[in-house]
Structure formats: C-alpha cells, structure tokens
Amino acid sequence: MTDDILSFNWHRVIIIDKNLLKDNFPNISIIILMRLLNNFKMKFLKDMNISSLKIPAEYYSQLHEFVNIFHNHGFECCLIGGCVRDLILGYEVYDYDFATNARPEQIMKLFRKVIPTGIKHGTVTVLFNSLKLEVTTFRSDGKYIDGRRPENVDYADTLNKDVMRRDFTINGLAYDILKDEVIDYAGGIDDLNRGIIRTIGNPIDRFNEDGLRTFRACRIAAKLGFSIEQNTFDAIKDTINIASMVSAERVRDELMKLLSAGLPSIGFEYMRKTGLLKLWFPELDDCYGIDQNKYHTHDIYYHSLYSCDAAPADKPLIRLVALLHDIGKVNTKRIGDNGDYTFYNHEIVGARIVNKIMKRLKFSNTEIETVNNLIINHMFHYTDDWSDGAVRRFMRKVGVENIPDLFLLREADRQGNGSRNGIPGPVIKLQNRIDKIIEAENAITVKDLKINGIILMDRFSLKPGPIIGKILQELLEIVLDLPEMNEEGILIEKSAEIYNNLKNQY
Questions:
Q1: How far apart are CA 157 and CA 77, in angstroms?
Q2: Beta carbons of 307 and 415 less than 8 angstroms apart
Q3: Closest alpha carbon to 82 in 202, 192, 238, 208
Q4: Among 68, 231, 277, 484, which residue's Cβ finds the most Cβ atoms within 10 Å?
Q5: Residue 69, φ and ψ in degrees, nearest 5
Q6: Which pTM does this prediction carry?
Q7: Burial group, residue 144, by CB count within 10 angstroms (0-12, 13-18, 19+)
C-alpha cells in the first residue's frame, strides 16, 4: 500500500477529494487515505517554487482589468489573505479579496456599482462584471475593547502596515497581479512550507483583539492539514476568556466552515486540547474517554469525530449530524445483562441535547428540525421481513426527502466505527424497495391521498377541526398497507366507516 501511495500523483490533489480517493483505492478506509494525503501533501509543497501563482482563466482577465483601474488612477491594489494562500496551495477560490491605499470614497468614484458593506472599517464590495469583489483600504487598527472590533480604525499608508495587523502569517500573503509577484512581509511562505499556523506578532495580542481567531486557527488547521505552532497553541488556552465573548452567531458560522474542511476532526481535536470545545460544545467534550461496547473500536468522542470526517464535505449539516448523532450515549450508558454496555434510547436523548446545542448557536428552526429528524431515526434496523407497508411507514416517518441524507449518515457512522466500510447490504436492499415504491407513486403522506379535507367536510357537513385530520390519518394507514385502495370512491366509502366510529368522540 505504501508504494502505491508514494507513486500516486499527490501534488495534483492538494484539495482532499473523497471521491477521487475512493476511485483510486477502493479497498482502503477513506479516513486512512485522507490522513495519508495530509501527511504526504506537505512534502510536495516544500518542493514548489512559490514566487507566483496561477489564477483560473475565467477570473484572471477580469481581476487583471480590475486592478489596472486602480493602477491607472495612481493607487496600489493587490489580492490579500486567504485567497492568496489557497491559490498557492491549489485550492479552488471563489472569493477574491483586495487591499488598496485608495479610500472607500475614492473606490466608489472608480466603479459604478459599489456596496458599502463595511465602510466604517474601510471595506466596500465592488460589483465588477460577473464578480463580487471585497476591497479594504490599508489600515492599522486601534485598541480592541470587546474582543471583536477595534475601538477605531486608522488608514495606513503602506501594505506592510496593513499586513501586520492581520491574524496569521499564511493569511498575510498578498499578490500583485500586474507584476505576477507574491508579497510576503510576515513569513507566510515559510510557514506554508513548514505546514504551520502562526500568528503575526504576539499571539496573545492577536487573540485578545478578536476571540474568533482562536476558532479560526483550529478551522484552518483542519482545512489545510496544518499544525498550530506551539506559542500560538498555548495562547489559545491563555485567551479562553476572550473566546467566551464571541457571539453565538459567529461561532456557528465558524463551525459550519470547519464542517466543510477536509478533516474536521483535526479542528475539533485542537478545540478540545485548548479548551474551546469545553467552552462552546461541552456536550461533545463530555464524550471524550467514554468507552462504547464491543461493536465499536473508538470511544464516543473519536467515533463522533471520525464519523464527521467520513460524511460528505459538501454537506456540512449532515456532517453536523454525524458529529452529534451519538451524543446521547453519555447519559444513557448502562451495563447490560451480558456485561457489555448498552445505550437504549440514546437517539431520543441525543436529539433533545442537540436541540439545545443548536438553539444556543442560533441555528434556524428548519436546520434544527432536519438534524433532529436524522438523529432520532439513525438507529433504524431493516430486515428482510419488513412488509411493504412497514417500508412505506418508514418513508413517512423519516420523510422521503430526508432518506438520502439518512443513508449518508449510516455510511459515515459505519466508517467512523473504525472497522467497517461502505453501505451495509440491508440498507441497499431497503433503498431498492424504496425506489420501487417511489416509482409506483404509492401514497406516503396524507397529501398523497386521492381525497382531502375539503371533500370530507362537504361529504359529512363538517367544519374544519381535528376530526378531519384523524379521518385522513386512518385512511393513510389503510393505504400504506394496501396502495390499491387509494382511489377517491373507495376512500369516501372508508371515511364514512371511520367517521361513524369517531363522531361521538368529537
């Protein structure tokens, strides 16, 4: 296996691509492969001559034209920050940020469409051709008093001064597109080659300025597979009080970015070791060191992290479910009759815990409902003796639209176990049966019935009320077992029987 890994063209795969890895190494755990990729990719970065970078052709001409407008009016303008870092590393970049010595009011005169998105802090968004470009005037920040924003912002006259107030060296890189030159005032190139995340200047000062930077360090480590430099790591632990001042909304947004990273587990481990996890996700931190039963290789915490890694990176909400799906096991752990641990109803308890976590972090009600539904239903156990009616009831309970995500969760759960890979045979059989039911257009919900509340009210001279819903639910139960009964005439006849049995109760 080692020879195959070494001979593979890793320098073309800086971005972790789960599907590519599966195609090339179908018999090896995806988690092992992703970790191997992170270990090997830095070897190739060290061999790269980073003096310029290549911008995709579909963006290059527009960005070149954009910067030329500044240049022709006597201003400096260069790409700055994470987009430069990611272009060097070979990641796809969709957001291009610029720094300039032009003031916001001057930028607004240069371009027709400018949005003052953060004009108080020197930032505007320029709508240029097909692009949306964020431009910030060189600045030097004043004193930070709230762990988030500077008390005042002073404009700087040089790029160097602007770079020195930024967070990490690898985010302090700039690129002059006209000269095709990477500008590095903070040692970012060296840190890219070393694969480390280090603050610009004193890490205590940088984290005291904005508590979210501590989370960002962990998230970037996960995205790039980098290590956090020791002094920077220690400073995160020493500035926990500042991290506690960050708003729930900002933490949530950083969490969702982390869940889109190559290996979120790297970021969560840094969060645990620095105390950030206990601060913002104590329920997950409590899973550390809690052993499971004989069917699991890892404790609850690491099983949760590796399940999260195995879920699709382009579905961060599913990764959140994978991260939290077993969080109820801590409170439900018991010794069973066979002497092994049991976790009865952990999915129910876990859904309640996750509901509190997501409300604390200001997730939307729709997101909370989606996550809770998947957690509650993740323990389904399909066997061949399920009737077609049982399959249809399963579809109704989960929601047809949620079933693909539930199966993705089941696959991630198995991979996170550490000893099993791929979708289990029973789930494949269940999917085949579901496909046939969908193809046959069988009724799954009340909305699929060939009868509705208006017809029932007219038929029995009823007003809107709970009895209508009860009749429709009982009709659905009949149709779930006997799909051929889903005809208006048959349902009207059946509804009369149901109504006669219920009318005295309402």
A1: 12
A2: yes
A3: 192
A4: 277
A5: -65, -45
A6: 0.85
A7: middle
